[in-house]
Amino acid sequence: MNNTPAIPGRAFDIVCAAIESTGVPTRRRGEHSLMTSCPLHQDTTPSLSVTWKPRTHTSGAVLLHCFSCGAHAATIAAAFGLRISDLFDESAPPHPRHVRLTPAPHPPAPRRATEPVHHWQRVRVYTYTTAAGAPVQQVIREQCRSHGAVHKRFLQRYRDGRRWVWRKPEGFTPVLYRTPALAAADRDQWVWLTEGEKDADTAAALGRLSTTNAQGAHSFPPTLTAELAGRNIAILIDRDPAGYQRGMILHDQLRERARACVLLLPATTAPKSDLTDHVAAGLWQPAHVFGGLIVASRDELKSLHRAAAHPRPPH
């Protein structure tokens, strides 16, 4: 049996370099362990444990554990701009006697130009509450700039008693965005069902009763569908394949339960256009019940989805 201990390889160096690049202080707890601030929340004292542990006689892995939020290692790694594979050493080539006689240096592996370290910044926090205003869930929008382009991502956390957690609690019940406004509104009002909180806030700023869901473009829980029963629903469509598909799915779910159900497209036709783009382009018509957006049929959405998902090659 080989009793030679594994020696830390590239993983610990890469993780340490990513942490150091953020400028947060670290506190060593040993040769291959440290404490630092968790990138997913505000830390008054370092709560993130970073420890290298052997997995085989030739390699190991970095364990990430936040004592405050308990987020998954993949979520924490992504916040540092790392992939989950960066947490694992590359297996060393076997020695003829399967014994690593001398430790070899393992400098951080350089990243390719196509895989930069992303420095994410929190730009918005959208809070979902009950009708009484009790917080239930938050969607956190983060952005970073790389190679001249702006990238975005969304993290979700949940209320569990008096604290926010990153893992969905057992028995969690989702709510609609802006639930207090929905509960207080006359049921004859049109409810603008947008794809995402940004457009819901845009619609609200324009005096429209608006909402959305936090589960993404392809998931609208049946419990939320029931909350919209008997209302006039305007489903706002983003001009991309996911948006067209979401519109068709919601239309099928709501048309039998809603008092009325319409599908609305922004008058801007650029790919990925949404309500906010429609307003920014100066196309908003305050006197119009639907603000100058285009009323579409389900068949039209189906055709748009097919064209966007399978574009014709240029001649």
What's the multimeric state?
A: single chain
CATH class group of the largest domain: Alpha Beta
**Order of helices and strands, N to C?**
HEEEEHEEEEHEHEHEHEHEH
- In terms of DSSP E residues, the strand content is 25-35%
In the CATH hierarchy, the architecture of the largest domain is 3-Layer(aba) Sandwich
- Can you tell me the residue ranges where pLDDT is under 50 for at least 5 consecutive residues? 91-115
Chain-averaged pLDDT: 84
For the largest beta sheet, what order do the strands appear in spatially? 10-9-11-12-13
- Cα radius of gyration in angstroms: 25 Å
Count of beta strands? 13
Shape: elongated
Helical fraction: 10-25%
Total helical elements? 8
Q: What separation lies between the terminal Cα atoms? A: 65 Å
Structural class: alpha+beta
Number of domains: 3
Major sheet size, sense and barrel closure: 5 strands, mixed
Q: Briefly note the CATH topology name of the largest domain.
A: Dna Topoisomerase Vi A Subunit, Chain: A, domain 2
